[in-house]
TrEMBL record:
The keyword NADP applies. Keywords: NADP, Oxidoreductase. InterPro entries: NAD(P)-bd_dom_sf (IPR036291), Sc_DH/Rdtase_CS (IPR020904), SDR_fam (IPR002347). This is SDR family NAD(P)-dependent oxidoreductase. Pfam families: adh_short.
Amino acid sequence: MTTTLITGANKGLGFETARRLVAAGQTVYVGSRDLQRGRRAAERLGARMVRIDVTDDASVAAAVKAVEADGGLDVLVNNAGVEARSPDGGVIGAEEVTAEAMRTVFETNVFGVVRVTHAFLPLLQRSANPVVVNVSSGLASLTRVTDPDTPAHAYPGVAYPASKAAVNMITVQYAKAFPRMRINAVEPGYTATDLNRHTGTQTVEEGAEIIVRMAQTGPDGPTGGYFDVMGRLPW
Ligand SMILES: NC(=O)c1ccc[n+]([C@@H]2O[C@H](COP(=O)([O-])OP(=O)(O)OC[C@H]3O[C@@H](n4cnc5c(N)ncnc54)[C@H](OP(=O)(O)O)[C@@H]3O)[C@@H](O)[C@H]2O)c1
């Protein structure tokens, strides 16, 4: 039986990923920084729930203890993420972005991924088929962001794409360091969730597809890659 933890799974892509993996027969932990939101989501899904705020060392350490006590972990989906927006809801571009805004986004999207992965490594290393899925973004692709023929080129934000580019690098370096694990970055595609005020053009069912697929990667599957639902993406 495969046991999977998804951070930020109380809603959006994480919730849908949890739903699909429960349906596939996995034991799934809905990770949620808020106890009530997490409990409600886990009840709806028939999943377990663990409180985890990826920006908080003590919260992550407590989550490791709880998951370890209940039997360990095979798959970690680093899904929790935030975007930097101004009070009027607009994306913060190069003119307005500050070090503080960058730090806030990196605290969740980058340091959160490292904090959680580092803390769960001992449990993952005990698994027969350890898997890590880092939920990145198409906006992490330097190739795309610099190509005027792609939609990514028009995106003005700085903090969010920089954070996801860092996630891609983290993915590659961890994959090389832990060759027995399958560690990949995925781009769900532009999906209607709270993150983008539901402006995304895909449904969560469509967006979660590549996350679900990579979470189920076997020992012969890829590692150190960057994928969307169509295949490999350019870095
Ligand atoms: N939607 C898209 O178009 C799109 C495209 C590419 C990549 N992504 C990525 O997909 C992932 C999921 O995003 P989404 O679109 O599903 O957004 P969402 O609906 O806003 O969900 C984000 C989740 O992350 C959680 N979260 C935020 N900060 C957290 C923290 N410090 N600790 C723990 N959980 C935290 C949120 O919890 P709360 O409910 O407590 O806030 C929520 O559960 C993100 O990494 C995002 O960057 C999304």
